[in-house]
Specification:
By secondary structure, this protein is α+β, with helices and mostly antiparallel strands. The chain contains two helices and five strands.
């Protein structure tokens, strides 16, 4: 399976971990236009927010934990953008109280 890393700090591809380095959200947009199938983002709130702001997110997979924190990183940016509607396509509650929600972006 091909892998891509979005980074503005990596100087070159790392031969030890086969991945192509993308430098910008525009690079991701060009990749998304190809026939390579869905792109998944793991573990980057900054990248996720930038992709959402650019209108490049088609589906959100969320896990909601039954814990309230007083501080933390925002999931979405504070950019002033138009309303975006979501449609629930899957949901499940686990025995530990975690809620899984899958939303499609309505276009």
């Amino acid at each position: 399976m091909p892998r891509w890393v979005v980074s503005t700090t990596l100087e070159h591809d790392d031969e030890r971990w086969p991945a192509t380095v993308l430098r910008s959200v525009d690079d991701v947009a060009r990749l998304k236009e190809t026939d390579g199938g869905p792109l998944l983002v793991h573990g980057s709130a900054t990248l996720g927010a930038a992709l959402a702001d650019a209108g490049l997110v088609d589906r959100y997979h969320l896990l909601v934990f039954p814990i309230l924190l007083g501080a933390g990183k925002r999931m979405w940016s504070e950019a002033d953008k138009d309303l975006e509607k979501l449609r629930v396509v899957e949901s499940e509650t686990y025995a530990n109280g975690v809620l899984k929600l899958v939303y499609d972006v309505v276009r």
